[in-house]
Amino acid sequence: MVLKWTASDTGDHIPIDALTYKRLASDYASVLDMAWWSAMIELEHTSIADLETRIERHFPNDLIIPAAYDEADRSDPKDRQFVAIFARRSVLAEMNHTGNEFGVKNVHLGMVTSHDWLNREARNGDMPDIEVPPGTVVMAMIDDGLAIAHELFRASRDTTRVEFCAVLPTPPDTARGDATQGRILRKAEIDTYLKNLTFSDLLDEEQFYSQTGQTDLAAGTFSPVSLRRSHGTHIMGIAAGFAPEIAEAARPIICTVLPPRVVEDTSGISLLPALSLSLQLLSKQASRYKCAGQPVPLVLNFSFGNFSGPHDGTSEVARLLEQFIADNPAQKRWMTLPAGNGNLARSHGVLQFPESCPEEITLDLRVLPDDNTASHVELWMPYSEHSPPPDYVSVTVTPPFGPESATVDAREGQIQALHDGEGRVVATVLYTFEPPPTARGLITLAIDPTASLKADAPLAPSGRWKITTRPKAISADQQVEVWIRRDETLPGYRPGGRQSFFDNGCYQRFGPLGRPLTVDPPDDPCPVRRAGTYSGFAGGASPMVIAAYTDKSHQLSEYSAAGPLTHTPMTPMPYRNGPDASAKADESRVLWGVLSAGSRSGSYVRLDGTSVACPRVARQASDEIAHWPLTAREWLSHAVSEHPFKLPPDTAESRTGAGGIVIPLDWQKNAAK
Amino acid sequence: MTAESFGSPQGGQGAYGAYGAYGAYGAYGAYGAYGAYGLPESPVSAEAFITTRDGIVGAPLDNIPPARPGVPEDVRNLKRLSREVRAAIFSFELDAQIELTVDVEETATATLWRRQHKEDKHRPRCDYHKLAVLTAPRMDVFQAQLAYVTGYADIRQDRAAEILSQLAAPVPFYQTISFIDPQRTPYTIELLATALRFTNFCEQRVKYALAAKRPIELSPQVQPMIPTPTHGSLPSGHATEAFVMARLIWKLMRQGGAPQYQGAGHWGEMLMRLASRIAVNRTVAGVHFPVDSSAGAVLGLTLADFITERCTGQDWTSAKFDGHHYSPSADFDWHQLYQADDDTQYPKTEGSEGIWAKARSHESQCGKSPVLAWLWEKALAEWTDFDPCAQN
Which listed residue, of A492, B26, B143, B366, carries a Cα 20 to 30 Å from A163's Cα? Predict the structure, then answer.
């Protein structure tokens, strides 16, 4: 393969974001202009109603604001707000111009959303307050594949504890007309299904999930609830499961089911619109639960993470979660997030250029063959208050068997594109500036898939790519943080992505006894690090972020990702140095995972990861939130001291936060009031 | 010769394979003992018998007391017959009751008829009644249902162990719900084997008549995870056999009178859920459309009732599957066809394209087969609780 680098001309158009209109499924590359995309936009000093009016003038039929935003939401001209929308390409392209007239500061594309899944006529119905007894805490969940009919979520054979479940990936129920995308199931409706589909005391769950919209195997909408083990079900079992015999009434569940096709994009990028819509739906619902006129507390568990992002609390997900927590100041809202599982993924690099160091640092990026999805590496520059920021470093990229690119500096307009023998672009190195509050330059290396079933698809070469960084205006105490975007294929899904990783020879993988090293060796000169593999979603100030430990060995689980975070621009100190605490996620080194609900009633399956550690804290938090006067993270720190789990004394704070916490899981025991 | 020859349902895959698969069977009761008792059939043993006779036979006797003649057409003989011999007799009793006609219009319709004998001991005279009528759907239904086959392929990794274990008739799966074991319930196993042989006899003939193509012929992307059997797709043999087994076991449980099997129908529901799972697994594997399972369930439930009628003289059910009214978008849902707690098929099953299944119950007009009744009674006794008052 003959490869050649060129500097592409971006012209006068300076995009806010590289909206490519391509997603994992390569078919989307040929999507019609009339297709609807889910997107999340960030508005500045603009109300949703104003946005609608302005868009209406130019594009009368190309924008849908979901019914989840009521009149009050639409008329509020907040300083900044994230809003989930559905829009056609023409609108999105206009919004993506710097200085556009709509007040849009940023656009993030989700997925093409089938016209059949959208109900343009949907209206937010009446949402009267729901009076609940003292001691009630609303449990909120966002995940894929929630087997809500499992007995742990029922109060009896045919009554559910799930008060509200928005199933996004399904055609709308136009008769109810209350959801723009998907269906909203409420308790009464779920109870009717449970009653009608129970035969000889046994629920026909295949029919239940088919009739409630979670499975439609003929439509190609794969759902994890078709599998024995589903992520969301398992996690909801830990956070909010109670045996039906005790009919727990004080932990009503509200939840949304994310579309599998955004979940399968493990980079987390396609997730934003669906997550933002989910949070809006849950925020409106949560506010309805009141006791003596006051909203009751809420605990939300979101067991998702990624690898990339600025890692300083300013990523879109981090800020979106903060927006949810602050959305109703009268309601106490706590949230649990996983620390991430990428500790040993070799997905993170730190580039420092002290006086004594060589003039360049090279990261060897191993891009795997048969990778059907694109691979991305993000090099985040230090935070800068200057505009434009200093030109910190220059980067060159050398593909396997190919020539080294010209330099891409950390300044606007810098781009290099790698062409194959037929002149098609197969990789790009591009500088962009992520505006405040992030205020960091970003050099992204985007590599096309190395395999495709389409005969004419341009393919990038697999093998070892060299990313060489040379210092320019960077000082000795500053550093460039590098993350590879998460790109693996989740169990049951089929995008065919393969996770690339840094393959520098200096990275010491194993310790003296042959076990994987779980922390970087002291004074390690290697730029590839375990420290800093922490999830890019979990940088915000408010959520409780949970690492994973292994019970029998009294060690943190090997995969449990570590801080520190990068310097946070808005505060003198980072919001956090890593997770807040660690909780049980594995029984032992040989018996991985913990048991919780399987996808069908009566079944219990094993799952591990920081994903299953954080709902355990959510469960405990729901017992304490009403009485604790301070913040969630302060409560957790206190709770760790009350119920400590013994970990080796040298376990770094950046891996376990305040420490391990013992939280028993007993589905037969009522929640604390 | 193997200990059993139950025929080979599922076109050579061997429903019977299930018995082999099922470990303990090799040691099957009397057969194990027989192996220990006898010498193998070989030239050596034959030579030994010859020389033994030569050695001890003695001069011809002339005053041996006369033996009685055999008792003709009497079920008491059955227990002295080998199981292979009984299997042939049971098969005759069922197979001989069935006729088939085929009408080919836009698609084929296969009608299984059952004989109804008239009074005449010396010469067969009979009427025929429709037992099961199956009309194949049009190609557009199969074409549309490819979407299901593709969708179900997503869960192959989850189901692979089940699918491979169910290549043969999956009797061991029924053992997980009903207490069936070669030592404990030998006659139940013999009854089920009889039923499966008969079911295969009927289903293969219907499949041949309808000649429905398999998913692999409609798309190169199905790529089934097991070999596609050579016989037709509709009705699904696995679905037919699975529902025959489920319903027969359920009938034995109900009629056995043990209290846990009465009432709410829990065992029946579970047996049907299992039958459905087995049927759906064939779609997951990529060798059947959901509509094949629906047709198979109609046929299986109907044949189970017919077999019971031949064994007991109880009511029987005739049924109709009309593929022309089967909605292309309909997945398989057995609950539309049958209610387990009172063991009845619904008179009508309607979808978005109209009524696609019908069933009607009939009183038995011709009495039971004494031979099959013998087997049924033996099997039923295996499901009956002992009377605590009758101890000693």
Answer: A492
Q: How far is B358 from chain A (nearest CA, A)?
A: 21
Strands A375-383 and A440-447: antiparallel
With respect to residue B99, please indicate whether it lies within any of the assigned structural domains: yes
- CA–CA gap between residue B15 and residue B168 (Å, rounded): 5
Residues of chain B in contact with residue A216, where contact means CB-CB under 8 angstroms, are: 151
Count of structural domains within chain B: 1
Residue B264 touches chain A, beta carbons under 8 Å: yes
Using a CB-CB cut-off of 8 Å, the residues of chain A touching B152 are 217
Catalogue all structural domains in chain A, each as residue range(s) with its CATH number: 4-10+344-502 (2.60.120.1290), 34-113 (3.30.70), 130-338 (no CATH), 545-661 (no CATH)
CATH number for the domain harbouring residue B351? 1.20.144.10
**Interacting residues of A258 by C-beta distance below 8 A, sequence separation 6+:** A142, A143, A144, A168, A169, A271, A274, A275, A278
Nearest to A217 among B152, B335, B340 (CB): B152
A226 in reach of chain B (CB within 8 A): yes
Rounded to whole angstroms, how far apart are CA atoms B223 and B234? 19
Cβ under 8 Å to B: A residues 494-533: 494
B147, B157, B269 ranked by CB distance to A200: nearest: B269
User: Is B150 near chain A, with CB under 8 Å?
Assistant: yes
pLDDT in tens, B318-341: 999 999 999 999 999 999 999 999
B192-214 confidence digits (pLDDT tens):
999 999 999 999 999 999 999 99
Residue B15 lies in a domain: no
- Binary contact (B154, A492; C-beta < 8 A): yes
A219/B151 Cβ within 8 A: yes
A613 sits in the region (left: phi over 0; alpha: psi -120 to 50; else beta) called alpha
Q: Which tokens go with B318?
A: 């005739």
| Contact state of B148 with A199 under an 8 Å Cβ cutoff | no
DSSP assignment of B55-120 equals HH--SPPS-PPPPPPP-TT-GGGGGGS-HHHHHHHHHHHHHTTEEEEEEESSSEEEEEEEEEE-S-
Tell me the residue type at A283. Answer: S
B157 interface with A at CB cutoff 8 Å: yes
* Chain A: closest CA distance from residue B322 (Å): 21
Residue with tokens 């491979």: B164
Along the 392 residues of chain B, how does pLDDT read in single tens digits? Answer: 333 434 344 433 333 433 433 333 333 333 334 444 556 678 888 899 999 999 999 999 999 999 999 999 999 999 999 999 999 999 999 999 999 999 999 999 999 999 988 777 788 888 999 999 999 999 999 999 999 999 999 899 999 999 999 998 789 999 999 999 999 999 999 999 999 999 999 999 999 999 999 999 999 999 999 999 999 999 999 999 999 999 999 999 999 999 999 878 999 999 999 999 999 999 999 999 999 999 999 999 999 999 999 999 999 999 999 999 999 999 999 999 999 999 999 999 999 999 999 999 999 988 899 999 999 999 999 999 998 887 65
Select from B141, B143, B155, B334 the residue whose CB has the most chain A CBs within 10 Å, as the one to mutate to test that interface.
B155
Flag whether residue A220 sits within 8 Å of chain B, measured between CB atoms. Answer: yes
Give Dmax (Cα) for chain B.
Answer: 85
Does B152 touch chain A if contact means CB atoms closer than 8 Å?
Answer: yes
Please provide the DSSP assignment of B17-52 as one string. HHHHHTGGGGG-HHHHHHHHHSPPSSHHHHHHHHHH
Residue A385 CA neighbour count, 13 Å, CB half: 3
Could you tell me how far CA A195 lies from the centroid of its own chain?
Answer: 35
User: For residue B340, which residues of chain A lie inside 8 Å, CB to CB?
Assistant: 199-200
Q: Give the nearest chain B residue to A228 (CA atoms).
A: B158
Give the range of the structural domain holding residue B107, as residue numbers without chain letter: 86-386
Q: Least CB-CB distance to A217: which of B148, B265, B266?
A: B148
